[in-house]
From TrEMBL:
The keyword Oxidoreductase applies. Pfam families: Pyr_redox_2. InterPro entries: BFD-like_2Fe2S-bd_dom_sf (IPR041854), FAD/NAD-bd_sf (IPR036188), FAD/NAD-binding_dom (IPR023753), Metab_Enz_Cyan_OpOx_G3PDH (IPR051691), Opine_Oxase_asu/HCN_bsu (IPR017224). Keywords: Oxidoreductase. It comes from the Bacteria. Residues 5-291 form the FAD/NAD(P)-binding domain. The lineage of its organism: Bacteria, Pseudomonadati, Pseudomonadota, Betaproteobacteria, Burkholderiales. This is FAD-dependent oxidoreductase. The keyword Kinase does not apply.
Length: 436
């Protein structure tokens, strides 16, 4: 190994940043790596016109002062290596291998995209993807956008799109109105969240917010021009330039699975009260352990950082917003309760869980339809027979959709986890663990 760190943190979102800060304060040598050029993860993604703001600014300022913490931006984990090592590919350093005493996985979540007729037309993205594109500098001023799918991310996308000058034609939420209303009332228990929701939605003034509704088809000649929406028994068609449709998030457990960590039936990395996984020396925090928002991810990250550096979280609180020793576990329980309320309110209903027509493409990379995939008994067989999930995204999108529709378990991912230079792979050489 070229370099060794006491603790390596993978992912520089709210969980990873807090983990690195806590571990750094405890005196450990820490590497914090992320495949994005700038830290912040999904929610605090930086980009042109989106500079870092609080709380990211504060975290980065503290990390800068911690000389024992090394930030490694634009760095991807390509594969695990023998003896607590990782093979990395970095924009600056190329292929490198590093060793760790403890590893903290803070790899976040991915957006769940569900196919519908016409979803491969240019102009169709996920709702979170729209967020990322706008923060990355994509102009949407004057565009008519339909935001669809499910969950609070639709509201964040609404706010971002409007702030960027787009005209949001409608927000189409699959959850039924009574569940959404009940969730809205429950926000009275979290006044900060309620204020945030009111600010982001502007009280839904000037925008249609349709509950119990689902996108059925994107139409257009070479690009999205219209969208058909199912509202109860009615179908309506709206003119639009863009559709941003995402059905919540799916924990990113790729690295955890490859390391042999136990994964729950819900697809989350299983952790104990100190954020330790089932594998010795590997901890996990944030949305890879369950989708719950930035506050929960941050608290879990801090607990993981303290735990990995040998400081029990119940014995010290270092979080800037927490004041007493038991606060970390208390805060985690609070945000876990909030996460449960979100999960209940925005649980996918039958309309979203039902596959579209057989002719609809399920795998965009390899052009495989729903009908071709459903003919096989499991994911592995479907992959082997149809090439579904074997394209550029390696089943990250269609695998989650097939899992939802057909109840299939995805096979454990095999490295390399993303395209890598041949020199990087050869450099790993004898350090690579044996494959099956
Ligand atoms: C596309 C998308 C957009 C979102 N936008 C918002 C939003 O605007 N507002 C909001 O409230 N919530 C948003 N969310 C929800 C958001 O995920 C959480 O609230 C919060 O960011 C979770 O923090 P985290 O630290 O667990 O993970 P994340 O913030 O997701 O951070 C995980 C980081 O790990 C990196 N990573 C993963 N695997 C590897 C690897 N192998 N090698 C290197 N780096 C790796 C990822 O690139 C990412 O930067 C979004 C989610 C998604 C998927």
């Amino acid at each position: 190994m070229k370099q060794h760190f006491d603790i390596v943190v993978v992912g520089a979102g709210p969980a990873g940043l807090n983990a690195a800060q806590a571990a750094g304060r405890a005196g450990a040598t820490v590497a914090l790596l992320d495949d994005n050029p700038r830290a912040g993860g999904q929610i605090w993604r930086q980009g042109p016109g989106h500079p870092s703001q609080a709380p990211l600014q504060g975290l980065l300022a503290t990390l800068k002062m911690q000389t024992n913490v090394t930030l490694m931006p634009s760095t991807r984990v390509i594969a695990p290596l023998r003896a607590r090592g990782l093979l990395l590919e970095s924009a600056e350093l190329g292929g490198v291998s590093i060793g760790y005493g403890q590893l903290i996985l803070a790899t976040g979540a991915r957006e769940r995209l569900l196919p519908f007729a016409g979803w491969t037309l240019p102009g169709v993205t996920g709702a979170g993807a729209l967020q990322a594109l706008i923060k990355g500098g994509m102009p949407v001023r004057g565009e008519r956008i339909v935001i669809a799918g499910s969950g609070p991310l639709l509201i964040a996308a609404l706010a971002t799109a409007r702030a960027a000058g787009a005209q949001v034609v409608a927000v189409v939420e699959q959850a039924p109105s009574f569940e959404v209303a009940r969730f809205g009332i429950s926000l009275l228990a979290e006044p900060a969240k309620l204020r945030q929701a009111v600010t982001m939605t502007r009280g839904f003034a000037g925008v249609r917010y349709w509950t119990g509704s689902i996108v059925r088809q994107a139409l257009g000649d070479g690009r999205v021009e219209r969208v058909t929406i199912q509202r109860g028994r009615r179908q309506l068609t709206l003119a639009c330039d863009r559709i941003a449709c995402g059905y919540g998030l799916v924990p990113n457990t790729t690295l955890a699975q490859a390391l042999g960590c136990a994964i729950s039936e819900a697809g989350q990395i299983v952790v104990d009260s100190e954020q330790r996984t089932s594998v010795d020396g590997v901890l996990a925090a944030g949305e890879c352990t369950g989708v719950g928002g930035a506050e929960l991810a941050g608290v879990e990250g801090e607990i993981a950082g303290l735990s990995a550096s040998g400081t029990p979280a119940s014995g010290a609180s270092t979080n800037r917003s927490l004041a007493n020793p038991i606060a970390l576990h208390t805060q985690r329980a609070r945000w876990q309760r909030f996460a449960t309320r979100v999960e209940t309110a925005f649980a996918l209903q039958a309309a979203a869980r039902t596959p579209p027509d057989d002719a609809t493409l399920l795998c965009r990379c390899e052009d495989v339809s729903v009908g071709e995939v459903r003919a096989w008994p499991d994911w592995r067989e479907a992959k082997l027979q149809t090439r579904c999930g074997m394209g550029a995204c390696q089943g990250r999108i269609c695998g989650a959709a097939a899992g939802l529709y057909f109840g299939w378990q995805a096979a454990a991912p095999r490295p390399p986890f993303s395209p890598a230079q041949i020199g990087t792979l050869m450099g790993a050489g004898a350090e690579a663990p044996p494959t099956e």
